[in-house]
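ARCHIVE RECORD
Type: protein–small molecule complex
Small molecule: iron/sulfur cluster
Source of inputs: curated submission
Record status: active
Notes field left blank by submitter.
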Amino acid sequence: MMDWESLRDTALHCTACKLCQGRHHVVFGVGNPKAEIMFIGEGPGQHEDEQGEPFVGRSGQLMDKMLHYIDLDRSRNIYIANIVKCRPPQNRDPEQEEIAACMGYLRNQVALIRPKIIVCVGRIAAMTLIQPDYKVTRQHGEWIQKNGVWMMGTFHPAALLRDPARRPDAFEDLMSLREKVRAVCEHTPLPEKL
Ligand code: URA
Ligand code: SF4
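STRUCTURE (tokenized, with ligand):
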């Protein structure tokens, strides 16, 4: 296992899969590495590739808005990363080979952060981290414990932008997350009024 700075530096120079070819930035992650809660998406899109930070496009703006509603903030009390750290061309799904090449970084990040809760944002993250045949529409909001970490999958904000009819379900997941944070996170106080 590498320390945080070596890990980050290694990732920023990584050429372990073909996604290195078209990238502008390796998107390592953002947030507080001491956070108790991690959000894990699928991979950078165009804006993330340009800016080097996860979830900064329209999807990211919606995600920030939802998280702020329960007092979670990337600058303070969460850490956000992706399954693959370089942008797949035309935003296609990452291939198994690319996921396999990149997973070591995420594993090492999780090992250093030691989160209490991991939220898998969207199908690819949930299939990779929870169960290979994960179905977001059926299983979103379900909690499972893996290696002592509470995990759930929820809708990708891009899906909520495409199909606003899913927003009430996503809101329920958010409320369930708030309950779980209250139950298992000692260092992430959420205001009583919420
Ligand atoms: N979608 C993702 O899954 N991750 C990002 O960082 C941005 C959009
Ligand atoms: Fe390396 Fe991951 Fe980028 Fe592939 S996607 S080049 S494994 S950092």
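CURATOR ANNOTATION: The radius of gyration is 16 Å.
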